Amino acid sequence: MSQPSLQSPATQTAHLGPFSRFLKATEIDTRLLGMIGALLLIWIGFHLYGVLVNGFGAFLTPRNLWNLTVQTSSIGIMATGMVLVIVTRNIDLSVGSLLGFCAMIMGILQVWILPKYLGLGDPMIWGLTCLAGVALGTLIGAFHGWLIAYLTIPAFIVTLGGLLVWRGAAFLVARGETISPVDATFALLGGGPYGSIGATGSWLVCGLGCLVIIWMLVGGRRSRMQHAFPLRPMWAEYFLGLLGCGIVIAATLVVNAYPWPKGIVRQYAERNGITVPEEGLFISHGFAIPVLILLAVGICMSVLMSRTRFGRYVYAIGGNPDAAELSGINTRWMKVKIFALMGFLTGLSSVVASARLNSATNSLGTLDELYVIAAAVIGGTSLAGGVGTIYGAIIGALVMQSLQTGMVLIGFDAAIQNIVVGGVLVLAVYLDILYRRGTK
Amino acid sequence: MARTGTPLVELRDISISFGGIKAVDHVTVDLYPGEVVGLLGHNGAGKSTLIKCLSGAYKADAGEILINGKPVDINNPRDARAHNIETIYQTLALADNLDAASNLFLGRELVNSMGFVDDSSMEAETRKIMGRLNPNFRKFNVPVSALSGGQRQSVAIARAVYFNAKILIMDEPTAALGPHETQMVAELIQELKAQGLGIFLIEHDIHNVMKLCDRASVMKNGQLVGTVNVNEVTDEDILGMIILGKTPAQAA
Ligand SMILES: Nc1ncnc2c1ncn2[C@@H]1O[C@H](COP(=O)(O)OP(=O)(O)O)[C@@H](O)[C@H]1O
Ligand SMILES: [Mg+2]
Question: Does the C-beta of B43 come closer than 6 Å to ligand 1?
Answer without folding.
Answer: yes
